[in-house]
Amino acid sequence: MQRMSDEPARWTQATVYPDMWTDPDDDPRNSAGPSPDGELATLQDFLTNYRITLRMKCDGLDADQLAHRSSPPSTMSLLGLVRHLAEVERDWRNWITDGDPLPKLYGKRDADFDGAVAEQAVVDAAYVDLEREQTATDAALAEHPDLSKRVGKDKIAVRELMVHRIEEYARHCGHADLLRERIDGRVGQ
């Protein structure tokens, strides 16, 4: 059990706004120019920014820190979130297809979090898995640019899949905020 004196001090790299992760000019999520035109481009932009946010929350941490669990009985960790989102990306492809579902990446239920151990090989593999699954799901959805098109066995609308993906990343980026602050005290949006 952590004592109060063992808790990290809150800090940020931002100098402009003390509650931000980084200064606006250094934020990779900020783009020059107007926001995207159209619903699909807007949804893709939000998804991209949440994906970047997750990576930012993990940046600069070693395998022990990434695998650090929130607090019992939770098995949640930043590494677990990376693995979970790789698993979820794969699962979304199962919603798109009419064929047999792809197998789970990490095996049994909750293996994405349970297997998030403090080994650099596990960290490296998690990032490779996430990138591969994001790319594959993006490619599968790119075949369906009509957001109202219904796909897969359950005939789910592409729009619903896109919004659900954004919601999943947004929710887990909120978890990542808290996990990161607990690890080293870094705060920010």
Automatic annotation (TrEMBL):
Question: Pfam families of this UniProt entry?
Answer: MST (PF04978)
Taxonomically, the superkingdom here is Bacteria
Ranges for region Disordered = 1-40
Task: Specify the protein name.
Answer: DinB family protein
Organism encoding this protein: Streptomyces inhibens
